Amino acid sequence: MAHEELRIYRLIPDAGEDDRNWDLAKPAGEVVVRARSAADARIVAAEAEVDFLDTPAKPAEGVSTSFASAFRDQRLYRVAEDDSGAFPREGPRTVLSGLTRPDPVKHGGD
Fold first, then answer.
1. Distance of alpha carbon 99 from alpha carbon 76, whole angstroms
2. Range of 73's domain?
3. Is residue 1 part of a domain?
4. Residue 103 placed within a domain
5. φ and ψ at 105, to 5 degrees?
6. Which of 44, 43, 61 is nearest to 52 (CA)?
7. Does any domain span residue 108?
């Protein structure tokens, strides 16, 4: 297996909490990930969120909601490379900090 060089990225909320683009998910705050690129950083963060497939409240068998993650929306989150050295670049693609909310999907009364 070839050595893969990864980078550290910060996903930073860019829209105000009252922005209408937050209609499907609440802001999760800043998230730090180890990923291949800025685009991959969005995917890593989205894959780490709770998905309908991970809960007993599934919309239908085999239906995922990960494609609808707020991390994939450029109006909601910007991605910035982190060169601070606070996190090691060696290791797997993963979330390093943040993403503490248990369920990103808004439900009826939220």
1. 15
2. 7-97
3. no
4. no
5. -85, 130
6. 61
7. no
SS (H, E, C) the chain: CCCCCCEEEEEEECCCCCCHHHCCECCCCCEEEEECCHHHHHHHHHHHCCCHHHCCCCCCCCCCCHHHCHHHCCCCEEEEECCCCCCCCCCCCEEEECCCCCCCECCCCC
pTM for the full model? 0.77
The sign one gets for the Cα dihedral 82, 84, 90, 92 is: negative
Task: Answer for the pair 42, 79: CB distance below 8 angstroms, yes or no.
Answer: yes
What's the pLDDT tens digit per position in 19-46? 988 886 778 889 999 999 999 999 999 9
